[in-house]
Design goal:
about 40% strand; Nucleoside Triphosphate Pyrophosphohydrolase; about 20% helix; alpha/beta; about 160 residues
Amino acid sequence: MIRNSAKALLLLDGKLLLNSHLTSVGELYYDLPGGGQHPYETMEEAVIREVREETGFSVRPLRFAALAEEIFTNPSMRARFPEYCHRTMHIFVVEAIPGTVREDVSELDFQQTGSSWFSPQEAEGLQLVPVQLRGRVREVLGSKEPVYLGSLRRDEVCM
């Protein structure tokens, strides 16, 4: 099974919103707000819903910014989390809808502990997911065309 995920690059006052997560062994990493697409839901609808659920922000997609694929090869990971071991991440630049009130977070992402704001430069140095975005946040934000971040096979157990 291949999971389609819609992810958001949400900038506000020059800062990027990232969700903080802790792995089962206590390692901190950061992920873009967003998650899995539901059946019959567009990618744009998925990113709007997921950002609202995880962060409380009402957003509107501005543009499709990047695509990344991740395939976990570790047999233990595949047995424990089959729905997360092959995913395609569709990354959108989104904006908070002016005049809307930030809602309470209704559904934290898997292992999510909160959300924090970082400059794009700071974000590039974090343990960021998708891994292919590390060191490339400003490139993606500044590109007029979507950026293909590539496919990555990962052997580690990260959850």
